[in-house]
Design brief:
Length: 168
């Protein structure tokens, strides 16, 4: 299985065996009731897109930094207050949506995210001083603090039959 969409299902917990889906490339678990993630999430080594938006997450496990192929990370509309330094190890990360959380800053280790070109931090608890620090830390990245964006993207067009055939 390469694609799994568990969105809109009132899910409260991801099973620890999730890492057994070792060929999973895209995982959508939007709009559920997740409060935390199992450490085993880091075993999804081929995961390129992870969407955990609109849940009740307050923190992420350090194992998120082991998702070596991750390009897009959607964590908007949660209750995150801090983020693990291990995310700085996600060298393929290009887009990250952290809007509408309770974040006050980002770890300095994120300076290593050379591929990150878009970071949404709209509606968080970030002071003006911290905003400047973040912009200095991620100079090559478009960091959004001030406007609502439609950051949600679908890299896979579900209407495209050719791509659907690739999943078989």
């Amino acid at each position: 299985m390469e694609y799994l969409d568990l969105s809109d299902n009132q899910i409260e917990e991801i099973p620890k065996w999730i890492n057994e889906l070792n060929h999973l490339g895209t995982l959508y678990i939007r709009n559920n009731k997740l409060k935390n993630l199992p450490e085993s999430i880091g075993g999804l080594k081929e995961l390129g897109i992870l969407d955990l938006s609109e849940n009740e997450l307050t923190k992420l496990p350090d194992s998120v930094g082991e998702l070596e192929e991750l390009c897009h990370l959607h964590l908007n509309r949660n209750k995150l207050t801090e983020l693990p330094t291990s995310i700085g190890s996600l060298f393929n990360l290009e887009r990250m949506d952290l809007s509408e959380n309770l974040i006050t800053g980002i770890p300095e280790s994120w300076e290593e995210l050379d591929q990150l070109y878009e970071l949404d931090l709209f509606k968080n608890n970030i002071s003006e001083d911290k905003k400047e620090e973040i912009e200095d830390l991620l100079q090559a990245c478009d960091v959004n603090f001030d406007e609502e964006r439609d950051f949600y993207d679908s890299d896979i067009n579900l209407d495209d039959e050719d791509e659907m055939d690739e999943w078989d």
